[in-house]
Design goal:
It is built from 13 helices and 25 strands. The chain is of the alpha/beta class. The strands form 5 sheets. A 7-stranded parallel sheet has the order 3-2-4-1-5-6-7, with helices on both faces. A 6-stranded mixed sheet has the order 12-14-11-16-9-19, with helices on one face. A 5-stranded mixed sheet has the order 13-15-10-17-18, with no helix packed on it. Strand 22 (382-390) and strand 23 (396-403) form a beta hairpin.
Amino acid sequence: MTSKLPVTVLTGFLGSGKTTLLNRILTENHGLRIAVIENEFGEIGIDHELVINADEEIFEMNNGCICCTVRGDLIRIIGSLMKRRDQFDHILIETTGLADPGPVIQTFFVDDEMKDKLTLNAIVALVDARHIPLHLDSSEEAVKQIAFADSILLNKTDLVTAAELDALEARIKAINGVAKLQRCQNANVPIASVLDIGGFNLDRAIGIDARFLDPEYPFEWGGILEAPAGTLTLAASQNPDPSMTAVIIPVNGTDDESLAFAREIAVRAFSHKAIEAASGSVLSADRIPYDLVLNDGPMQWTCKVDASGPLAIFTQHYPEELGLKFLAGSEELHPPIAASYKPDHTHDEAVSSVGIEVDGECDAKKLDAWLSKLLRERGTDIYRMKGVFAIRGNPNRFIFQGVHMLLDPADGGPWGNKPRRTSLVFIGRDLDRDSLNQSFRKCLA
């Protein structure tokens, strides 16, 4: 019998040092073949540029938070990896700094295929000693990252006083008093303390959250309709959101097993970019998913049903919120089976990301002045900055990573045959997209 493949989840709030630790793991001589799965909150992918060249295989997901709809992508990527099980000794998942690790961990206990083939080695949380006190009172995710951890790396200890460090450690232990805690700088810890912990404590996780094993889904309602051949109409009279995603899936029956089967397909479908469908659009039951765009006033969509039979429908909102009805001609259809689901959590709506990608080169002096001014004026609101720059006169990539008002520049090595272009991402509160774009473009050479 093949042994289960160990998985380590690397978490920590924005700027805690996850990429630094990942680079250490990828460069140390530990003898393990590691597949890395990265998730980014930012609207453009940049983390792969910050990870050093290595033999390990790196997969990147940047279309959402790994604790929300990206769960379908996570399951797909791991499923693909398991087809090459003999090529890897360990899987390392790096979550976005805004992720609640609970739903990520949960996947390894509630998904039967993953539960049979994988074992959760540990949740490792990095903590930025300088900046985490700014977020513990305002970010539920930052607290949960610490609470669920088996190992806590209190990083950047050189940036605070001994008294501040002692006070922070006491606060961390009040949140999670059983995790092993190590103080470190530049995420410099023995690799065995990350990759060889030996097992996630499920009982403790349930103690933190009694509903830990209740899955979160990217939808709130699902039901099965017995639809006759012809036209099925979805009619909504209310619109709580400017858009709503729904998935329609043909199934074989109207029982719990059929709904559960369709539900797992829907999880994966919701992680894809949805197809927009304006009011009055004709939908097809063999194409998923559908993005049903709700404007002001009554809305309706029609679904062409080629042959009578059961259809499973999953919606982001409860039907009663939408005033949603299912009609076959003038007859209203009522689902013989339906279920409500625990919806995925929401993030602070004031926190967003802005991505900028520009072909060409920057002027070094203009860029330095722009970054200095930006940090001085908006540093407290910018939680995280990451960038790869092409600088005129410099044959190498210029990389920076910033956390609030601290900026860490580095030489990223030669551009080689890659096009010289700039990519940068900001994650923070109340970001002004137009202002950031316009002010940056003044740095171009």
